[in-house]
Write a structure and sequence with these properties.
The complex is a heterodimer of chains A (526) and B (304).
Chain A (H helix, E strand, L loop, with lengths): L1 H20 L2 E5 L15 H10 L4 E3 L5 E3 L2 E6 L6 E6 L13 H11 L13 E6 L4 E6 L6 H4 L8 H6 L15 H4 L7 E7 L3 E6 L15 E4 L5 H9 L5 E2 L7 H5 L4 E16 L20 H10 L2 H8 L4 E3 L23 H10 L6 E8 L6 H13 L3 E8 L1 H9 L5 E7 L5 H9 L17 H10 L5 H17 L3 E14 L2 E2 L14 E2 L1
Parallel strand pairs in A: 1-10, 1-11, 14-15
Antiparallel strand pairs in A: 2-3, 4-5, 5-7, 6-7, 8-9, 9-10, 11-17, 12-16, 12-17, 13-17, 18-19
Helix pairs in contact in A: 9-11, 14-15, 15-16
Chain B lengths: L2 H6 L2 H7 L2 H18 L1 H4 L41 H37 L1 H16 L2 H15 L5 H33 L2 H8 L4 H37 L11 H9 L8 H28 L5
Helix pairs in contact in B: 3-5, 3-12, 5-6, 5-8, 5-10, 5-11, 5-12, 6-8, 7-8, 8-10, 9-10, 10-11, 10-12, 11-12
The chains are: A alpha+beta (526), B mainly alpha (304).
Chain lengths: 526, 304
């Protein structure tokens, strides 16, 4: 009898403890991942969701350090300085049970270098990739590339056989509006498995019981329900009412309210992201302006005048309520190449700006359309609206067209906007990443996010040379040179560096990742 | 007796004077319409001119000087430093303009189709009324959103802001004609059988002439009542569309857009950005609606 009771108690205990370990985290942020195809869109929230399901060779942990993921060790090859060698993790399986080996890595890298991939800039210096045995992998570059591992932190590996079986060898053409199996389904090696996904509504993930790092990481969150909530007030209301446990973007006006609510907390940290405006300065004429036969943005004086007309301090004080760092350069302070001098905010001088507009022949101004996202960056639409007022003061009549990022980003990629807002996070923490995507002439391998039509062959060749410069001192000098050209030409109008505000229930324990990618395997719960 | 005095003594005015609700509603509507029409003269600022905005004035509390600029605004400012009072006046212009034009459009369309359906009957009448029935099964706001989306797709991008108001009118008007058509058809069916219509017919008048000169004047009473009630609904429909972000652009806000902007600051204590536009919308829609109710009672022969 006694033993029976003990048994019953043990069963009951076991039952409750298994219930206690099932911890669901309800997660919300303004926008959804754009696609599950890991190589189709190089975009923050898209990679952030992908990181739960898929893994790169190396990744950044919540502090920004590069740590092992699917590779356990990596180093430049001793025989050939143009080769990086990666030792792959053994015994890893994909969510569908297939084994992971070097074949999958080679496949994924070749996929990421294909024309439709949005990651090809990161691998622009790569000549070829090859397997070296079942658990060895080599990247051969055109010249020695000292910072190769930091280019790979968002380069996810998918199963070759799965991709072939599901017609997903080719990368989804996101800008062309293509929909594929890989855009809606995922088979990775990551800590969480995809249970269901309704784009822009709800994505459900559950723990991968066979994850290689199950004992290495806390993994206290077992189920994740991700619901994008675009409206700021609704998102805060969801957190206040306990409908969600964690939101990644507490609106600046509600920080106080959330922080002072029992059971909730806000943690804040500067983000590795800069917000700026881009202008079509390369085309002979613009389609969305009222100037016939010429392009007002092509005149550097107009761009300088605009740079002076934007009052970044006012945006910080009023729109951001102090939660931003005004910027003078399109590069976050985390990045190699950043200096205080570069980031000095241009003086807000309307009189001088007006004089420059007149000098350029636009004393009466002109009108132009500004394209702006409304669910991507903190207060993105309000910043654009503020810019409308500031540019009006120097005679530029700006029509604002704000729309969700899923419609906004293709405008930039397809060169269909003349004046746009963009934010840029730098996962490699190095200027080369910014140059490759934003400053190099838009082409096959480079410049996929350069919507400015800016083309400077001399600058392009300097950018390409960066990848193979092994002397770090020399390389930093080259970076400084490129920045001075970019700044002189007023390639972009920087606005500010974002500050992250993560709001969460008290039971959630984490630090703020500077790349705004919450990796839930690191989260603990109490 | 002068004409005015004669009108004052009429049954219509007598019942108006006897109804305090009607008098108060009428006064409120007149004040609001006056404010909207003469907004450029009354409003201290022009909120639609972005060059006059000073962002540093943003989030000023009502009747209190701004912390940065020291300027004071009666009803405070919104997140862009726009004077809320001026913005309400200008926003109401858009709301009222869209409301009036949409109802006018719906009325012309609905009355025409209703007359045709009622007078000619047959296949044409059946088709018109079945289309109306199908449209009635969808909520009006859904129909308006659908039409708005399609029309926006056809508008050239650089004209979208200018066209937004006209697209709104089209969308709301098209979603609202059914009420008119149904009532007019019913009344026409009754009138058609009466002797004066048959007499006109025997005299050789054409169908269009009979519909316009003989039947229309006799069905105009109910149409007026529906028009008044529809006006309130159209104003609310415009506000709803703008609130959902598919109506008037944020740089030229209507009342609904203002409420959408203000709604983002509900939790942070900046209540005035939402409160004043919302109260204005409430006052406008409620008084127009009450006027419509009163009109219906007066014109309803069964209640006399």
């Amino acid at each position: 009898m006694k033993s029976k009771t003990a048994l019953l108690a043990a069963v009951l205990l076991a039952g409750t403890s298994s219930f206690a370990t099932a911890e669901t985290l309800r997660w919300a942020r303004a926008g959804d991942s754009l696609t599950l195809d890991p190589h189709a869109q190089n975009e923050g929230p898209t990679s952030a969701l992908a990181h739960q399901i898929m893994e790169p060779l190396v990744m950044r942990d919540m502090t920004g350090q590069i740590v092992p993921a699917l590779a356990t060790e990596w180093a430049p090859s001793e025989e050939d300085q143009n080769v990086w060698f990666f030792k792959l993790r053994e015994g890893v399986t994909f969510h569908d049970g297939a084994a992971f080996d070097s074949e999958d890595v080679v496949f994924s890298f070749n996929r990421a270098m294909s024309p439709d991939s949005d990651y090809k800039e990161l691998l622009a210096s790569v000549k070829e990739v090859r397997a070296k045995g079942k658990y060895g992998f080599e990247i051969v570059t055109n010249g020695p590339n000292p910072i190769m591992p930091s280019n790979l932190t968002n380069l996810f590996v998918i199963d070759k056989d799965w991709a072939e079986a599901n017609n997903a060898v080719k990368v989804q053409d996101f800008e062309g509006g293509e929909d594929t199996y890989a855009a809606r389904n995922a088979n990775g090696t990551g800590p969480y498995k995809l249970v269901s996904r309704e784009p822009d509504a709800k994505t459900v993930l559950t723990i991968n019981e066979n994850y290689w790092g199950k004992d290495e990481f806390p993994m206290e969150v077992t189920d994740i329900i991700y619901t994008p909530i675009q409206n700021a007030a609704t998102r805060v209301a969801a957190l206040l009412s306990g409908e969600v446990d964690f939101i990644q973007d507490v609106p600046v006006q509600d920080l106080q309210r959330v922080a002072s609510t029992d059971g909730l907390k806000v943690i804040t940290a500067p983000q590795n992201r800069v917000i700026f405006f881009g202008m079509n300065q390369g085309d002979a004429d613009l389609t969305k302006d009222n100037v016939e036969g010429k392009n007002p943005f092509a005149d550097k004086r107009v761009r300088q005048a605009m740079n002076m007309a934007i009052n970044r301090d006012a945006i910080k004080q009023v729109v951001m309520r102090g939660q931003s760092i005004p910027a003078g350069v399109a590069m976050p302070p985390f990045v190699n190449g950043w200096t205080e001098t570069l980031d000095k905010v241009p003086a807000n001088d309307i009189a001088k700006a007006k004089a420059m507009m007149a000098e350029a022949g636009y004393a009466d101004g002109f009108s132009i359309q500004l394209d702006c996202p409304n669910d991507r960056y903190i207060n993105d639409e309000a910043i654009c609206q503020a810019a409308v007022g500031m540019l009006a003061q120097i005679g530029i009549d700006v029509r604002l067209d704000a729309k969700p990022k899923a419609q906004h980003f293709p405008l930039i990629n397809n060169l269909e906007t003349d004046f746009y807002m963009l934010g840029w996070g730098v996962p490699t923490y190095d200027s080369e990443y910014i140059f490759n995507f934003l400053a190099h002439t838009k082409g096959e391998k480079y410049g996929s996010w350069n919507g400015t039509r800016y083309s400077n062959p001399d600058l392009d060749s300097q950018i390409v040379r960066l990848a193979s410069e092994t002397n770090l001192e020399e390389r930093n000098l080259m970076i400084a040179n490129i920045w001075s050209t970019v700044q002189d030409d007023v390639l972009y109008l920087p606005i500010h560096h974002q500050v992250l505000n993560w709001g969460m229930a008290n039971k959630v324990e984490t630090i703020v990742a500077p790349d705004d990618a919450a990796k839930f395997k690191y989260f603990t719960l109490n | 007796m002068t004409a005015i005095a004669q009108a004052w003594q009429s049954d219509f005015m007598w019942s108006f004077r006897r109804s305090p609700v009607a008098v108060v509603s009428f006064i409120v509507v007149m004040i609001l319409v006056f404010g909207a029409v003469f907004a450029p003269l009354i409003a201290p600022y022009n909120p639609f001119d972005p060059a006059t905005l000073n962002l540093m004035n943003g989030f000023s509390k009502p009747m209190q000087p701004n912390a940065f600029t020291g300027e004071t605004f009666w009803l405070g400012t919104d997140d862009q430093g726009r004077d809320v009072f001026s913005t309400i006046l200008y926003g109401m212009r858009i709301s009222l303009f869209v409301g009036f034009c949409a109802v006018l459009f719906a009325m012309v369309l609905g009355v025409t189709l209703g007359l045709i359906a009622g007078y000619s009957g047959g296949l044409v009448g059946t088709i018109i009324m079945r289309v109306a029935d199908v449209q009635l099964t969808f909520p009006a706001i859904l129909v308006a959103m659908l039409i708005f989306g399609i029309a926006k797709g056809f508008t050239p991008v650089h004209l979208r802001d200018q066209m937004a108001v006209w697209v709104l009118i089209l969308a709301i008007g098209l979603s609202d004609w059914v009420q008119f058509a149904r009532v007019v058809r019913g009344a026409t069916l009754v009138e058609k059988k009466k002797e004066y219509v048959q007499a006109a017919h025997l005299n050789g008048r054409k169908a269009a002439g009979i519909m316009l000169r003989h039947i229309l004047p006799n069905v105009v009473g109910p149409v007026l009542v529906i028009a008044t009630i529809s006006l309130a609904l159209a104003i609310i429909a415009e506000a709803t569309l703008s609130f959902l972000g598919v109506g008037a652009p944020p740089t030229q806000p209507s009342l609904g857009t203002l409420i959408r902007i203000g709604q983002g600051f509900l939790f942070s204590g900046e209540w005035w950005i939402l409160f004043f536009p919302a109260v204005t919308l409430l006052a406008l829609a409620l008084s127009v609606n009450l006027l419509g109710d009163w009109l219906r009672d007066v014109l309803n022969p069964r209640l006399r």
